[in-house]
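Supplementary Methods. Inverse-folding protocol.

Structures were first reduced to a discrete structure-token string of length 434. This string, shown here, constituted the complete conditioning input.
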């Protein structure tokens, strides 16, 4: 039975999934040890930086990885080297990173005062973490496109393993600076990318240049959707500091709670590897029964995962965050219930978003997430307790995005598009996992 199940997943999914598991463990270890060694204010600053890094980093650099992987894979099937694609992808990543760094350091004063409790060293730490993600995602795109999934999973595993080692050293030596724990987010990905650079360097080669339209086609809309999706799932911690800068306890506790309730998103990241190719094949061939069957099954799986995780989080969440992360006792069972419902709605939106991409409806996906973010903003306006406001924003934003996607899919009756080139490549990340 196990062998049969393994035969259904794309080659490399197990290796990439293993790497993702190590990264997930690293996230828990990182925040748990930081929570036990930092005071509430410093842990709150680290929580905000963490949310900014993975909102922006995954939101803008993961789409670059996907496009680089797609183009490298297409060239690889024709015997062409990936060098020109890497050059273009690196140029795009560098341009985006440069813009982010200019904005980050240009707003260093407000960021320091409003988000980092007056600690100016957190701003360069933020810049370093964003730089690391730009490098990591660009090189992963080449590894994925070349089907070097063993190396891909190794990079993920090294990233996570180095994070665990570094934070253990910090905790073991009694370091109590949030900057030190923040710099781990820069050092580990950069070291992992360097240690797995050999297959990328060996394969670079030369060949026909990649035209900019080939790389940029769809990248803009994909980036918009990815960034907005990350905003929905990560903005709550940042909003706590913006809505009530004096409430340092809630921001740290909320990040710890989100890390727990979003465990199903790690599972979806691995399942996504097979979901999009399957939906794309069914849509391209006009096999509507297969398309809807696969979509229903995916929704059923994430619903089961979200419901099970939600019940456990609602029952045990308050105790777990106090025990594992040493966070203040500011979130109750109701808070975890809201966060779990929000995560389930977010999982639905992620699955439905894959269905829209399979039908070549990039615009619709971007519009859905735009409306979802707008709904999130409106939901945080009522004068309610800060924690409840951000929980409602996460829930309503995710649910509205999912409803818009369902509406678009139900109205879709167009002729299936021209069959695309389907490459069964594992997706490395998804759903704001970190």
């Amino acid at each position: 039975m196990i062998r049969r199940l393994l035969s259904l997943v794309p080659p490399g999914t197990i290796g990439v999934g293993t790497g993702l598991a190590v990264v997930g463990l690293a996230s828990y270890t990182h925040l748990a040890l930081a929570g036990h060694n930092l005071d509430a204010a410093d842990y709150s600053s680290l929580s905000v930086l963490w949310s900014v890094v993975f909102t922006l980093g995954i939101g803008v650099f993961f789409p670059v990885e996907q496009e680089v992987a797609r183009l490298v894979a297409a060239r690889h099937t024709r015997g062409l080297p990936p060098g020109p694609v890497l050059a273009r992808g690196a140029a795009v990543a560098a341009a985006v990173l440069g813009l982010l760094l200019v904005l980050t350091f240009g707003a260093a004063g407000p960021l320091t005062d409003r988000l980092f409790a007056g600690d100016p060293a957190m701003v360069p730490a933020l810049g370093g973490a964003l730089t690391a993600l730009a490098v990591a995602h660009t090189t992963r795109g080449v590894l994925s496109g070349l089907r070097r999934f063993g190396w891909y999973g190794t990079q993920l595993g090294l990233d996570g393993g180095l994070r665990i080692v570094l934070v253990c050293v910090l905790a073991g030596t009694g370091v109590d600076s949030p900057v030190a724990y923040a710099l781990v987010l820069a050092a580990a990905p950069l070291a992992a990318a360097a240690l797995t650079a050999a297959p990328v360097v060996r394969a670079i080669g030369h060949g026909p240049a990649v035209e900019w339209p080939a790389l940029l086609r769809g990248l803009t809309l994909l980036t918009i959707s990815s960034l907005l999706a990350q905003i929905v799932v990560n903005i709550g911690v940042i909003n706590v500091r913006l809505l009530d800068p004096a409430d340092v306890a809630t921001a740290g506790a909320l990040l710890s709670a989100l890390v727990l309730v979003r465990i199903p998103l790690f599972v979806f990241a691995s399942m996504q590897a097979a979901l999009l190719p399957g939906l794309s094949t069914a849509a391209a061939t006009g096999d509507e029964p297969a398309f809807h069957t696969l979509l229903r099954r995916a929704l059923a799986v994430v619903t089961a995962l979200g419901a099970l995780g939600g019940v456990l989080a609602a029952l045990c969440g308050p105790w777990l965050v106090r025990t594992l992360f040493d966070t203040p006792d500011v979130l109750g069972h109701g808070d975890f219930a809201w966060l779990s419902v929000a995560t389930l709605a977010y999982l639905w939106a992620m699955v439905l978003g894959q269905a829209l991409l399979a039908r070549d409806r990039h615009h619709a996906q971007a519009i859905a997430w735009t409306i979802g973010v707008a709904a999130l903003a409106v939901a945080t306006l009522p004068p309610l307790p800060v924690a409840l406001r951000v929980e409602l924003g996460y829930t309503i934003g995710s649910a509205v995005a999912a409803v818009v996607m369902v509406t678009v899919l139900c109205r879709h009756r167009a002729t299936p598009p021209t069959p695309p080139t389907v490459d069964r490549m594992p997706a490395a990340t998804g759903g704001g996992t970190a």
